[in-house]
Design goal:
The chain folds into two domains: about 240 residues, no CATH class; about 50 residues. It is about 25% helix and about 45% strand. This is Ciliogenesis-associated TTC17-interacting protein. Plays a role in primary ciliogenesis by modulating actin polymerization.
């Protein structure tokens, strides 16, 4: 699939020298190679965040969903991310639709960005597809009626570890589930601009984050795109769900507030329903707790193992 060509507006051809290739670090390559299918299975869920300004006013929303799909006849992961909001009162948005392999290869991706300014619209589109050991990239940028088109191709062997925007969102979910980011985590990436760029990741560690009236423990990942430049701080819950996403230097700060609380209430209702359906669970736990307090063992874990050993089917 090619990026559609528009008729009518004048076209300016992009002329530029061939950019130098950017090498991935060995640490990054090894990290991606170590990702197991079971880890990717845990990444199959949806996130939804509310975008708020520093003053607390709502500006829009951000969502990411990952599920299983096929690309041609090849099993893969399908990722769709949508961001809508305003910057200084101007409507803007980004949509990413990507088909990704288990090795974080981008089989195909469409990306659309726009900003509606007073009197004209600025937008960028890019289409990436992998074909015959090559990565083909078509880009269109439009500022008002002036349209610029550009096509590039890269040999896969020359851009080892090449990461798209969709693959980056999925990769950070894996980092969040592992709660680790390797040192020197650097990969080549394709931004909507006219060249390859370098993206690096580093751990921000664990901290307590206020989400509405709740305080939760989160793990942070920093993502830096060097040539743009752009810097994001993303914090994740223990199950990989995104709790906050902030672009430093941007007036926007995305926080999962009501969405997180809705999910918490849903889980609590589900747990309460399960307890009602299995009253024997309450009796079993009450007996165990009473016996534990009577014995007061030094090694609680060993005591618990011995107590429940007769219940084991093996």
């Amino acid at each position: 699939m090619q990026v559609p060509h528009e008729d009518g507006p004048p076209v300016e051809a992009a002329v530029r020298p061939e950019p130098p290739l950017i090498e991935a670090s060995e640490e990054a390559i090894q990290f991606i190679a170590s990702i197991e299918p079971s880890e990717l299975q845990k990444c199959l869920f949806s996130d939804s965040l509310v975008t708020v300004s520093e003053g607390g006013s709502e500006l829009g929303e951000f969502s990411v969903a990952v599920d299983l799909a096929t690309h041609g006849q090849r099993p893969c992961l399908h990722l769709r991310a949508v961001s809508r909001g305003t910057i200084d009162g101007n409507p803007c948005g980004t949509t990413v639709t990507a088909y990704l392999s288990a090795a974080m290869e981008t089989l195909e991706q469409d990306l659309h960005e726009y900003v509606q300014l007073l009197g004209h619209k600025t937008e960028r589109r890019s289409h990436i597809v992998q074909r015959d050991e090559m990565v083909m990239v078509d880009r269109i940028s439009a500022v008002g009626k002036v349209v610029t088109r550009q096509s590039d191709s890269y040999n896969l062997s020359a851009v080892r570890g090449l990461l798209s925007e969709g693959a980056s969102l999925l990769l950070m979910r894996v980092m969040a589930l592992r709660r680790t980011v390797p040192e020197n985590m650097t990969l080549p990436s394709l931004d909507p601009g006219p060249r390859l760029t370098r993206v690096t990741y580093r751990s921000l560690g664990v901290k307590q984050l206020a989400v509405g009236p709740e305080t939760v423990e989160v793990f942070g990942v920093e993502r830096a795109v060097e040539e743009v430049p752009a810097l994001w701080h993303c914090y994740f819950l223990a199950d990989g769900h995104l709790a906050s996403r902030e672009q430093l230097g941007s007036p926007e700060d995305m926080e999962m507030r009501s969405k997180f609380l809705d999910r918490k209430e849903e889980l609590m209702a589900d747990h309460a329903s399960y307890l009602r359906q299995h009253p024997e669970l309450r009796a079993l736990l009450a007996d165990f707790l009473q016996f534990l307090l009577l014995r007061k063992p030094d090694n609680v874990i060993h005591f618990t193992k011995e107590y429940f050993l007769p219940f084991s089917s093996r």
